[in-house]
Specification:
Blueprint (H helix, E strand, L loop, with lengths): L5 H14 L2 E2 L2 E2 L8 H4 L3 E5 L7 E8 L2 E5 L6 H10 L5 E5 L10 E4 L31 E4 L23 E5 L13 E8 L2 E5 L6 H10 L4 E3 L3 H18 E4 L2 E4 L8 H8 L4 E7 L11 E4 L15 E5 L23 E4 L6 E8 L2 E5 L6 H10 L5 E5 L11 E4 L16 E2 L12 E4 L10 E5 L5 E8 L6 E5 L6 H11 L3 E6 L13 E3 L33 E5 L5 E3 L1 H7 L1 E6 L4 H5 L16 E6 L2 E5 L15 E3 L4 E3 L5 E6 L5 E7 L8 E2 L21 E5 L7 E3 L6 E9 L14 E8 L4 E8 L5 H8 L11
Parallel strand pairs: 5-7, 11-15, 20-22, 27-29
Antiparallel strand pairs: 1-2, 3-4, 4-5, 4-8, 6-8, 9-10, 10-11, 10-17, 12-17, 13-14, 15-16, 18-19, 19-20, 19-24, 21-24, 22-23, 25-26, 26-27, 26-30, 28-30, 31-34, 32-33, 33-41, 34-40, 35-36, 37-38, 37-42, 39-40, 42-43, 43-44
Helix pairs in contact: 5-6
């Protein structure tokens, strides 16, 4: 045996020392990633269904017993901590009300409060281990970013045993040939299992099952299928299959299919029935097929679906998604005004839930808000079932009334108002608890007809669209003439990238590559369209004032946007008339804040009659409101001693009942800053010392009634009944999640000496009927005499 040197013994000793938990009584640093939970004797796993590998109900094993976490006071910060415990980099969302199904056993944590920076969930505040007043219907879940922590050991992340589950559902057309219009509404039901797509046996298939499947695919309802037709098709397929394959000894001869066979037969013969699911029995209220009672075929099952065939469904799309060959899809309004709507969503079919009560729109409190209630909302609006029920004002906070709380739906109700609920009281709920939804939508393929090129990321670039018919499809550019924020909003929505930060008419700094042809011009959108095809444009005739690929449309998209809202009650409370001497209005005249007749006045003698009021502008969106122009292009106004970051920030108008403008004013953004903020929000913008301008989410900017230009010059207005209108961001210079709430209107009556101002409200706060009554000026109730 060869002798071992002292140096080699030293290496062995060092290695042994590193492998031990201590060396000479001193702890040694570990090079492996720290197992935070492991050091605390805890284990974590994601459970429930339907879900993806990086999402699910959070379960913790403590003292050998698995348990869950209650969703009370649960936040995204807590989700960040738990996702890191599970080996992911961060959380992208969280769920409540047992979205992934109720767990079993103990509820280990309740009222969990984390800052998001904790290294372990044990560092977060809570009621203590095992101390909870919740049920498993309140189990919390997390949605983690699909990105693992470098070097993280999975030994601490225990996945629930891999039961078979339905991951996805689709409809495959059984008949037809060539390109079919989207969305596909009828066909064979196929489910994606871990080993691929499979069909569902139709034995015992019911209308309830079809209702659930159609809801998952984005359709509000279903209709009866012509079962006899599909049976006939199956018989044809069976006969054709028998004719095509003729056994000869041990050799199987395949016959060629004649080219002149009808399309239905050609497709029928190609059907290879591969059943993976049977015994489906839904109640009809489920949001996902996995929540229904069902059975999977085992791998050794030789006889599958005896005497049956593949399940077929026929879904009914809402008018918004009804496919029509050769015609543009039109947004048809349902009979009567809707009593529910979505606000603040970055994508179609998502947003904050608002309901109409007594002619006024208000929000819904998220207490006991679940998938059943959310699905009722989604179907009522013409979408499918709900993909997510959102709480905690995830789609931004509303303003005004909160109409409903503790809504408990069975899932079968035709309207949210038919569900049992509790009327709200002032102390019950706040707008930080506004409920929201994400609905299932039909697949229309609109995102395949648009793309961005040349940008630094996938969220920006020159817009390219696909035009032409089958056999002549080509990509081209859009003329930049008149391209603005509203058009860019539609483009970003069609791309599935949320809102538009900017709509650009020139794209010099983005390389167009090989695409140089302009194929679309004259695009004009209202901002609500689902695709650019639905916007007005020149059609096949392209007319562009400036030629060249650098004068084409571009966008910068974002998942979040600001949302400005004027505090209408403050306008009504602070409105008054002032006769101001001309010698005090030189600065205002310089900034064009007076009526045109002021130019011919006998300066500095005389006065102007001004209607003054305060403006408190809130940002209720999910991104800060920032001026479009950077500081380098702000304009200094010596007279008032400040910079203008936006030339026109608000319009002030006096209108006749038929909409004729009799007086107008405008307000530049003298200084956009955070005057005040909500309790838990810090100010970020301040104009002093050439500071950054903007309005933070959860803050407001106050323009007091006693500052210059905070008025309308009504010197030339005759006595009568009028409408006072204030519009924020009137030229859509800065993108917002919702432009419909940017206008405020008040009734006012002017007798030549005094003015009555009342009934001030945000433009979309009333029902259509209430707005009609407002415009007819019904009387002087609640008048304010100034």
């Amino acid at each position: 045996m060869r002798p071992v040197s002292v140096w080699q013994w030293s290496l062995w000793g060092l290695l042994l020392c590193l492998l031990c938990s201590s060396c000479l009584g001193s702890p040694s640093p570990s090079t492996a990633p720290e197992k935070r939970a492991g050091s605390q004797g805890l284990r974590f796993r994601l459970a429930g269904f339907p879900r993806k590998p990086f999402e699910g109900r959070v379960e913790i094993q403590r003292a050998g017993e698995w348990g869950t976490i209650c969703d009370d006071d649960f936040t995204l910060q807590a989700a960040h901590v738990l996702c890191r415990e599970l080996g992911f980099t961060e959380a992208t969302g969280w769920t409540h009300s047992a979205k992934y199904g109720p767990g079993t056993g103990r509820i280990w944590l309740d009222n969990l409060s984390c800052s998001g920076t904790e290294r372990s969930v044990t560092e977060c505040a809570s009621r203590g281990w095992g101390n909870s007043d919740c049920t498993h219907d309140e189990d919390a879940g997390v949605i983690c970013k699909d990105e693992r922590l470098p070097g993280f050991s999975d030994s601490n992340v225990i996945e629930v045993e891999h039961h078979l589950q339905v991951e996805e559902v689709r409809i495959r057309p059984a008949v037809g040939r060539g390109r079919r219009p989207l969305p596909v509404t009828e066909g064979l039901v196929e489910v994606r299992l871990p080993d691929g797509w499979s069909q569902v046996c139709d034995k015992g298939w019911s209308a309830h099952n079809s209702h659930v499947v159609c809801g998952m695919l984005g359709f509000p309802s279903e209709k009866r299928v012509n079962v006899a037709f599909y049976r006939k098709l199956r018989k044809r397929a069976a006969k054709a299959s028998a004719r095509r394959s003729k056994p000869l000894g041990r050799v199987l001869l395949l016959q060629k299919v004649p080219k002149d066979q009808p399309p239905s037969r050609l497709l029928a013969q190609r059907q290879q029935h591969s059943f993976g699911l049977h015994g489906v029995a839904c109640v009809g209220t489920e949001a996902h097929l996995s929540l229904c009672s069902l059975e999977f075929y085992r791998a050794n099952d030789t006889t599958r679906c005896p005497g049956g065939g593949p399940a077929v469904v026929s879904c009914v799309p809402s008018p918004l998604y009804a496919a029509s060959s050769g015609q543009k899809k039109q947004q048809s309004k349902p009979q009567g005004e809707a009593r529910v709507r979505l606000k603040g969503g970055a994508h179609p079919g998502e947003g904050r839930v608002e309901v109409l009560k007594a002619g006024t729109w208000g929000t819904v409190c998220d207490r006991k808000w679940d998938l059943q209630a959310a699905s009722v909302v989604c179907r009522e609006l013409g979408f499918g079932s709900a993909r997510e029920a959102l709480s905690g004002a995830r789609m931004g906070q509303g303003m005004g009334a909160i109409h409903l709380s503790e809504v408990r739906c069975s899932g079968q109700e035709p309207s949210l108002w038919k569900c049992p609920h509790r009327n709200i009281t002032a102390e019950d709920c706040s707008h930080s608890q506004d409920a929201g939804v994400r609905c299932n939508l039909p697949y229309t393929g609109v995102e395949t007809k648009i793309r961005l090129s040349g940008g630094r990321s996938r969220h920006e670039g020159r817009v390219e669209v696909q035009t032409g018919g089958p056999g002549s499809l080509r990509w081209g550019l859009i003329c930049g003439d008149d391209w603005g924020t509203l058009e860019a909003m539609v483009a970003c929505r069609q791309l599935g990238l949320g809102y538009a930060n900017h709509g650009l008419q020139e794209t010099w700094y983005w390389d167009s590559g090989n695409i140089t042809e302009v194929v679309m011009s004259g695009v004009h959108c209202t901002g609500t369209e689902l695709s650019l095809d639905q916007c007005a444009h020149h059609g096949t005739h392209v007319a562009c004032k400036r030629t060249g690929s650098h004068f084409t449309a571009g966008v910068i998209c974002s998942e979040t946007a600001s949302d400005l809202l004027l505090h209408s009650a403050l306008v009504q409370e602070t409105a008054y008339i002032e006769d101001r001497p001309l010698h005090m209005l030189y600065c205002a005249a310089e900034e064009n804040c007076l009526a045109s007749s002021a130019r011919s006045a006998n300066w500095p003698y005389g006065h102007r009659r001004l209607l003054r009021f305060s403006s408190q502008i809130h940002n209720l969106g999910r991104a800060d409101f920032r001026p479009k122009a950077g500081r380098h292009s702000w304009v200094w106004h010596e007279c008032h001693g400040h910079y203008h970051s936006m030339d026109i920030f608000t319009h002030y108008d006096i209108l006749t009942p038929n909409g004729t403008k009799v007086a107008e004013g405008h307000k530049a953004s003298f200084c956009l800053e955070d005057t005040e903020c909500q309790e838990d929000v810090s100010k970020r913008y301040e104009c002093a010392n050439f500071g950054e301008q903007g309005i933070t989410v959860g803050c407001w900017d106050l323009y007091r009634h006693d500052i210059d230009c905070q008025w309308i010059d009504i010197t030339d207005v005759k006595p009568g009944n009028y409408i006072l209108q204030v519009v924020i961001n009137p030229n859509f210079e800065v993108a917002e999640s919702d432009f419909t709430n940017n206008a405020m209107k008040c009734n006012c009556k002017y007798d030549g000496h005094r003015i009555w101002v009342h009934n001030c409200h945000i433009g979309d706060a009333f029902s259509e009927e209430a707005n009609r009554r407002f415009e007819r000026y019904p009387g002087q109730t609640s008048n304010q005499i100034i």
